[in-house]
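input
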Amino acid sequence: MKKEELQSKLTAKAWKDPEFKKRLLANPKETISAFIKEHFPNEKKLENANFKVVEHDPKTIVIGVCCITSKEAIVFPWLRFLQAA
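output
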């Protein structure tokens, strides 16, 4: 499973289920692990992942800073502009 797929499923469930949303915000690791076990019992890739969940609102900007390896910089040439900064 790709992380984008998991993210979209968790977001949809949080929209539909206010109690799930509360648990997700209060204890992301436990809530997401239980969700994966229930819906994707054979999934092992995300077992040791770290999860951070934030609630978006009009006053909050969430920025994810990624770690880029030199191999990824070759694959994604648009990242070269970062070297000039």
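quick obs: Residues 3-16 form the longest helix (14 residues).
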